[in-house]
Design a protein that fits this description.
EC number: 3.5.4.26, 1.1.1.193
Order of helices and strands: HEEHEHEHEHHEEEHEHEEEHEHEEE
Keywords: Hydrolase, Metal-binding, Multifunctional enzyme, NADP, Oxidoreductase, Riboflavin biosynthesis, Zinc
InterPro entries: APOBEC/CMP_deaminase_Zn-bd, CMP_dCMP_dom, Cytidine_deaminase-like, DHFR-like_dom_sf, Eubact_RibD, RibDG_C, Riboflavin_Biosynth_HTPR
Number of helices: 10
Protein name: Riboflavin biosynthesis protein RibD
Strand order of the largest sheet: 12-11-10-9-13-6-14-16-15
Strand content: 25-35%
Bound molecules: zinc ion
Cofactor: Zn(2+)
Oligomer: single chain
Structural class: alpha/beta
Amino acid sequence: MEEEYKYMRRCIQLAQNGRCNAAPNPMVGAVIVCDRQIIGEGYHIRCGEAHAEVNAIRSVKDPSLLKRSTIYVSLEPCSHYGKTPPCADLIIEKQIPRIVIGCIDPFSEVAGRGIRKLKDAGREVIVGVMEEECRQLIRRFITFHTLHRPYITLKWAESADGYLDMQRKDGCPVMLSSPLTSMLVHKKRTEHSAIMVGTRTARLDNPGLTVRHWYGRSPVRVVIDRSAALSPALQLFDGNTPTLVFTEKPHEAALNVEYIPIDYSQDTLPQMMHALYERRLQSLLVEGGSMLLQSFIDAGLWDEAFVETAPVLLHSGAKAPKISDDMPFEVSLVFGRNFRHYRQANRANAG
Ligand SMILES: [Zn+2]
């Protein structure tokens, strides 16, 4: 069993390389072991390209070893024709006799079918090694498909006395993130499909919301502009990256900007999240301001929150959002800064 954990841990590690590009597919990793040696490894690199199992099998130098190998994979091999042929068929074709699976596919229409196919072909199949960790790995995917909304991460920086980032002292914003922690912020950006700010933040901070201090593509930008009050000269409307605008009023068309009407007589956040779901945006980073963040918290509409505390006293300004004191969090020290990391219990456990 020790062995099984070791290789499944490696699968999870590999899978995480797909964090920025696998979506909307789940992150998956696979390892092939023969005579207690890893002879192949792979992960799902990019949506539309080869699955983890295919990459692992391709990486094996001597394919004759496959006939007496075990393949470890963090998620049940697929059994249906999607953009690529089913992995369960490939494993059967390559005559791999033993398959160890982290967790079954969470969707009822496919759950267990890959496993059944492998068993029907006479293969030994073991399911549930590091199951919880493997499910955690794909929590964005599970949340998106079961709750029909993106996986929501809240992020802000606050002063030691609880005021929010980007306060204006004498008209100039005070930046609470340090140059090092803003790298982390940009890393978070590229790990999400979309990024959202409220009207006030868009108007006063004029953020570009692109990824500059890290590698990777910029997320789709999302802003609320109920009464068409935002200036078209803002960076959000520069056309360099797609921007979605939630609004009640008609706007003039602009390059790379989509206006999405919202019914303000109803709850607005669920409508907005549904619109992102329809556009297949699997994860959302909410960067502010305080009112928008607090409305997500009050609606219980969030999955993770990262709060950076700067060793600075501001004494006044917009109060930082507040998450209930009962909510447990982990503290980490990154580049000398305190980060609180909250994570909601996984409410989207399907099956
Ligand atoms: Zn597959």
